[in-house]
Fold this sequence. Notes:
Elements: H1 6-10, E1 35-43, E2 52-57, E3 62-66, E4 76-79, E5 90-92, E6 101-103, E7 123-129, E8 132-136, E9 142-146, E10 150-153, H2 169-178, E11 234-236
Antiparallel strand pairs: 1-2, 1-4, 2-3, 5-10, 6-7, 6-10, 7-8, 8-9, 9-11
Amino acid sequence: xxxxxxxxxxxxxxKNRVSSHRFPAKNKLPRVSGEVAEVVDLIHSPVxxxxxxxxxxxxGHVGHMAAPEGISVGQSIAFGDNVSLKPxxxxxxxxxxxxxxxxxxxxxxxxxxxxxxxxGNSAVLETRMEDKVRVRLPSGRLxxxxxxxxxxxxxxxxxxxxxxxxxxxxxxHYRAKARGKLYPTVSGVAMNPVxxxxxxxxxxxxxxRHPVSxxxxxxKGLKTRDNKRTDKFIxxxxxxxxxxx
Length: 245
């Protein structure tokens, strides 16, 4: 009979596809300005690392956005230029003072938010320059953005989610299933030489080389970014990782 190969287990079958019911809503800033919405509910989303705030506008339109820390049901959220610096309010970067933590930052005006969207993360607005602003991302990278890009004031909720231990394999199984990930995964040193560069040897050997992927690509610090078109917007690269011994 044999066994199913790794590519078959990871394939596009319904077993490894994220179920649609696990996406309660899309995390995207509504394209509105000069309006006020009310938070009617805070929703848990299995595929997001932060809760989603369900907001309702005066005309009855309903939207969803990532909930920053300090937001609560019944709170009002303002969209536009002249808004107060209260967690949850959405405004353009040119209206935010330097040193303010922001989240769900747009890369291009109107795209709904692309940066600093993971639970507990935030970016810091460092410098304003006419039609450009410089934002320090959670990775330490300094990026230059259009001043008309919008952002949410505050730090995203969900901080410390990784500090809680999984306790049992079942918890890891359901966490991977919610995101369509393959679980469990077999370590390379436990495989045969034909299956992985780290495989083979008597007993559990160290592999004899630096960590690599099954195809031989370095898995420790190799730069894989290849987008020369947007290199001009990066003012400073992210900080190098300091290995702890």
